[in-house]
Amino acid sequence: MKIYDEPLAISADQWLSMLNDQSVFHEEDVELIRTLYYFPDCRASGKELARVLNKASHSPFNAQIGRLGKRIVRQYPGMQFPMREDGTVRYWNIPFLGEEHRDKCIWQLRPELRAAVRRYEQQDIDRQEDALLPSELEDVPLREGGKKLVAVNRYERNARARRLCLQKYGYRCVVCQFDFEEVYGEIGKGFIEVHHLIPLSEIGEQYTVNPFDDLRPVCPNCHAMLHRGNLSIEELRRIVEARRTISVVHEPN
């Protein structure tokens, strides 16, 4: 295994500035970087990224990251970047640290870029909070010291996190197994809500929602009951299954 961990003098502030600059980070680049951010320790292979992003192959990522690396070099022309033995820039190694195994390569976000993505994600949540409907707002204090009020459901309404959650878990309710497309056909395709799993008391000041660990797809009925009863998904699932059993037992012959 070969390790690529050369240091790079780009700060978190500089990365954040580039993430917000569409001439440097194109939309597809932000999507890839944000997806990698949610993997454990911000590291994954190209195949793992392709699977989550519903791509047929991970091969295009190499050219994509190469183009991104070149734009970053143009932003900082006097900076020392990771170099190959032949004297050319190792462009993929600009945003990523890496491991080269016999059968795969692993990318990992540089620590400074990881910190920048964390801040970028918070910006995204704050922007989307203003778009919530009044019926979706439920203000609760999350920071006792700062007395800041935020909307409970804003984590569930984060469009980016929602999309990643549904790419992994699909569109069937994890509580009652209802699938809108199966029942309603084309008009039900892609319709589902997402539920935020972590109790509000456990959310800290620096919390950023993880779509793989923190969100699950649920139908509107189950979603309402989860919030109304302050139940876990497992608790509500047991209630639903028990009620179904009772219904079967009492069905007329």
Low-confidence stretches: 129-152
Tally of helical runs: 9
Quote the average pLDDT: 83
List how many beta strands DSSP finds: 8
Backbone structural class: alpha+beta
The biggest beta sheet, please? 4 strands, antiparallel
Can you tell me the overall shape?
A: elongated
Helix content: 40-55%
Instruction: Record the strand order, biggest sheet.
Output: 1-3-4-2
- Please tell me how large the radius of gyration is: 22 Å
Secondary-structure element string: EHHEHHEEHEEHHEEHH
Strand proportion: 5-15%
First-residue to last-residue Cα separation: 67 Å
Protein described:
The chain has 253 residues and is α+β, with helices and mostly antiparallel strands. It is built from nine helices and eight strands. It has helices at residues 12-19, 27-37, 46-52, 59-75, 111-129, 159-169, 180-184, 220-229, 233-249; strands spanning 2-4, 43-45, 96-100, 105-109, 139-143, 148-151, 193-196, 215-218. The strands form three sheets. Strands 1-3-4-2 form a four-stranded antiparallel beta sheet. Helix 1 (12-19) packs across helix 5. The radius of gyration is 22 Å and the shape is elongated. Mean pLDDT is 83; it is low at 129-152.
Main attributes?
253 residues, alpha+beta, four-stranded antiparallel beta sheet, two-stranded antiparallel sheet, 9 helices, 8 strands, 42% helix, 13% strand, elongated
